[in-house]
Amino acid sequence: MRKLTAFLATTLLTLSLHAQTSSPVDLVHPLIGSDSNFALSNGNTYPAIAMPWGMNFWTPQTAKMGDGWVYAYDATKIQGFKQTHQPSPWINDYGQFSLFPMTGELKIKGEKRASWFSHKAETVKPHYYSVYLADYDVTTEITPTERAAIFRFTFPDNKQSWVLIDAFDRGSQIKIIPTENKIVGYSTRNSGGVPDNFRNYFVVVFDKPFAESLVWKDSVVVNNLKELTDHHVGAALRFETRKGEKVHARVASSFISTEQAELNLKELGSDTFDQVCEKGRDVWDKALSRIEIEGGTIDQQRIFYSSLYRTMLFPRKFFEYDASGKVMHYSPYNGKVLPGYMFTDNGFWDTFRAVFPFFNLMHPSLNAQIQEGLVNAYNESGWLPEWASPGHRDCMIGSNSATLIADAYLKGTRGYDIDKLYEAVLKNSENEGPLSSVGRAGASYYNQLGYVPYDVKINENTARTLEYAYADWTIMQLAKALKRPQSEIDRFAQRSLNYRNVFDPETKLMRGKNQDGKFQSPFNPFKWGDAFTEGNSWHYTWSVFHDIQGLIDLMGGKRSFTQMLDSVFVVPPVFDDSYYGFVIHEIREMQIMNMGNYAHGNQPIQHMIYLYNYAGQPWKTQYWVREVMNRMYTPAPDGYCGDEDNGQTSAWYVFSAMGFYPGCPGSDQYVLGAPLFNKVTLHLENGKKVEIEAPGNGDANRYIQSATFNGKPWNKNWISYTELMKGAKMGFTMGATPNKTRGTTDADFPYSFSNEK
Q: Coil, strand or helix: which one is 482?
């Protein structure tokens, strides 16, 4: 018994040391969120094998060609290893092609060539993927750079060892150059948002001569040809291999040209597979280690770094370097090759909330490049993107580009043409765009009446009103910083109060309003969609980021306000899905979480928990933030509670685990929650450090008893971005019971526009 006890003690010590000494990259689990489907999202993610913000991602493909759910955790077969640029299954993919090894009889069709695999024989890291394909006795490994990758195939003893290259349908080209062990080609398959001349050019170079090389069209080999352009083409390369022989394929692509793809291949240099893999690991480890955590459980550490990984995937670097090292991009807006940065694959409706604020905090130089990319997008299309993949897509609402433009500039980001971006923001504020998601749908109504009416056939009208009002406040703040005319500042200040026009004092909720000024009737606050976007009135009522005090006043004061906040968790998860005609996945995700009508799986309500800080009950924020982190995030394939959405749901966790959240991007403040870990250290880009210490923290001790900022007592429910950027030390004394005296006075509350008057 004594020996067993000693063994267990040693084992636990070893595990503890491992937990503390693991590199962050080893804690990342890229399969979190991959156990999802159309009816229920547990993330709707796929394992992105990529560099941070890399131009090209790679992923195993379990689904048929064109399926947005490219990798499903419950799938049993893999049919390809796909270059992907997919930001969401709902937006789907573009710039795609795949490689796939096999042995024996050549099988071209996806469902016929697919091989059984097991997660037990699968290794998934941000920088590395490996899987055993059981039907062929072949192991496939992938390791990427930003625009290239190396494949390593380990074959059995077989004279018919194949690698299939699939350029996908809807127009593709393939060319085999046997003397160079090379294949070049292009794919045009996309899901929208591209000019007519869109192509993804690729090059694949093997380190072993072909025993045979074939081209195929629509799954049928075409004899006596080495080049083919048609609806759906590809190549099949045969090798004669010995048991355990490794065949390497060096792969790169370009949106500019085949020649540029060859240049992009040089990212690999002369490095071996293992060297590229190690460099990729170092890149990720350096990026993730910018935030150090101490304490917490191993599961919490895994969730944190997996979420941090997700915040550093999108938006994608949609630019390349020419032979002289000059930054160039293919424009997804006008089809030209132009100088300068371009980023894509982002829905600002999601990411303005926490992802871009995270960039301002931890990656401001990257955000400067993104802002330059927005300048280029405006110059090339005449509009700011709101959902880009790779060009404008008709998805979601709002003019949230204004928010992230204003927030970046107000937080000191420079090095781009802010005057051009302000011009773009002004244009957006007055006009409808070529798509309902570009510009402002209902702009004329909004600017004339102060709201988008319910009865003028503009869907999600009340949500639009709320989002436009907040965007107008950010424009006002930017106008002040740019010293614009006072009349202009006043115009946007007045418009920022338009949220008041859709507040119903009878229900204390936001409600659709008809053109004649009367509220729409009958009103069901549990009705999803209709006047709102992927949510109901209980979710959208809180979308007054810039003026929570104004919302408190409308609701009749702090007590009434906090009662309404409490009600979100108290009311049952009832819903009305009549607008959609079926239960959309966002509804189901709310229903099954046992948190009333709180719908963390979708973005509109994710900041709501932090609003108790504005009404003198910060302990409720502390309670609910910890509840959401504990209950709705796990380091498992079903580990998210809805769409992960380009890093937003992940960024919520990252901020919340650090103990604060960007409740109002465009202001200088973060709203306090409570830290999850005993200690968090932020290594800022400017060389400064932010240290957040909460000794004794734990699941039982989730409440802040007292706090200090740079050694001085801190009773406020917010902290300043400006002060953090100077380097700061925050200390929290945690306890098991709420401190109901701290952070309860008006002087402790975060920013609200109404308090400026």
A: coil
